[in-house]
């Protein structure tokens, strides 16, 4: 698995806490050069063999702010390591996913797109400070399909002040009129350092509304395979994270993991360009790894294998089993309601004993 972080954005969304910049476009070429340097280093560190990378994901920021021409040297270097059936995803914003950009990325080998739509309500898009409107979103997705992209996803945001069942229903209806096979639904969260930091009232999650929303999405034949992700197609890259696989994190503010170590390239883009190998590492204890596997397992279809649990934790899991809050099959506990995932994980874990 390989993740590449592109930190450039047309505008800074009011809720965004990701490492992104609206005023650093002049650094694009230097940033790509730095990515190439780090890529050389990581391919050796992770001992990546030819034809072995199963997934590549371009995230951001906004990957569609970089021209396909700038991506060419990266794809040329990565190509020998990609499996023949590799899933190659790029995130994109509707306003910058032009015909030329989509065509160029298709030529490079990108075979899956994830569009940051967030809503088809223009007033809500303005509130979130998105750079596109609903018409651009529909046009970009239809164009991507026309150009041959078979796997297309879009993001929607819910739990925003002003959200109603009627507004969200319209978002869902419009989403499913488009040629998509995957949808991500994210609750608006207020994070430090964002424009919404001092406006906690902008986020209003209602459990009943969220439950209804997830049910409506599922009615369209999209299986919920993780707390925020639904699809008739399941992203291999997403599934890799839930399965706790190793992954390279390339770029300023990216994160990588190999075995019991997590890697953090510097999040300052200027510093990253100066020294892309200035990467901090974090040691993960056995307890850290177990705790993360439990959290990820209950937030997804992966589940939690009984072998990693203590006797006391198994007893607690069996209490939840009797209450129909967990399902047990093939030595694995599964969570049928992802909205309760964190509470179940906290109840279960026995690290203090």
Automatic annotation (TrEMBL):
Places the protein is found: Cytoplasm
Alphabetized Pfam families for the sequence: Radical_SAM
Domain of life: Bacteria
CDD domains, alphabetized: Radical_SAM
MF-aspect GO terms: 4 iron, 4 sulfur cluster binding; coproporphyrinogen oxidase activity; metal ion binding
Database matches in InterPro entries: Coproporphyrinogen-III_oxidase (IPR034505), Elp3/MiaA/NifB-like_rSAM (IPR006638), HemW-like (IPR004559), rSAM (IPR007197), rSAM_horseshoe (IPR023404), rSAM_sf (IPR058240)
GO cellular component term of the entry, any: cytoplasm
Keywords tagged on the record: 4Fe-4S, Chaperone, Cytoplasm, Heme, Iron, Iron-sulfur, Metal-binding, S-adenosyl-L-methionine
Biological processes per GO annotation: porphyrin-containing compound biosynthetic process
Coiled coil spans: none
Keyword presence, Metal-binding: yes
Main location group: cytoplasm
Domain Radical SAM core: 1-223
Family: Belongs to the anaerobic coproporphyrinogen-III oxidase family. HemW subfamily.
Function recorded in the entry: Probably acts as a heme chaperone, transferring heme to an unknown acceptor. Binds one molecule of heme per monomer, possibly covalently. Binds 1 [4Fe-4S] cluster. The cluster is coordinated with 3 cysteines and an exchangeable S-adenosyl-L-methionine.
Protein name according to UniProt: Heme chaperone HemW
Species the sequence originates in: Sulfurimonas lithotrophica
